[in-house]
Design a protein that fits this description.
This protein has 210 residues and is an alpha+beta fold. It has a single domain, classed as N-(1-d-carboxylethyl)-l-norvaline Dehydrogenase, domain 2 (Orthogonal Bundle). It contains nine helices and three strands. A three-stranded mixed β-sheet has the order 1-2-3. α3 runs antiparallel to α5. The radius of gyration is 17 Å and the shape is globular. The model has no long low-confidence stretch (mean pLDDT 94).
Length: 210
Amino acid sequence: MSFQNGVLKDCYLRAAYDESHLIGGVAYVASTVSAPGVIARTGPLQRLIFGEFDGRPSRRVEAFYSAAVAGGIDAEISSDIRRAIWEKFVFLVGLSATTTTMRVPIGPVRECPQSRALMLDLMREVVAVGRAHGVPLPEDYAQQRLEFADTVSPDMTSSMHHDLERGNRLEVRWLSGGVVELGNQVGVATPLNRAVADILAVHANGRPDH
């Protein structure tokens, strides 16, 4: 069960393991690497969503749910975990692409009409790709996520923005780059996400001293 960002991670796992060994997962947590080997939470969010890819109930999922709740984690079992993974992916791509390329948190992004429109269009590309892959996202889901963006702290940013500032490797290959790859598979154009992936490509491997 992978709680890593993006949707390609499950494709890699399926290539390495039989699908009967896999459970889908999504993590929502605001955190940063505050020191080597130290992860600091930067907000109260600590939510896990997980479930079998075929939507059936299972004893292993129930056992993990019980363990999460016992540990004080807000946990939820999903009957459509693939959709749940893509729902996070839509917002994450919009957030990471804008905050990292613009080097600012979400507040200035959503307040400027041009950057706000860019964020919306980036997420629309993700929704179009997901729907083309058979994920039942509503057509207006990007607009819904933009409205959600208006409810979060203006200081909220993405882990990729933090990584860029610190000279670390970036996950752009699996975020905007993943949208491009998956779009190519189903013939959906993703020019804005390709632009983000191309812009950040020179930073993708981090600074040489890191």
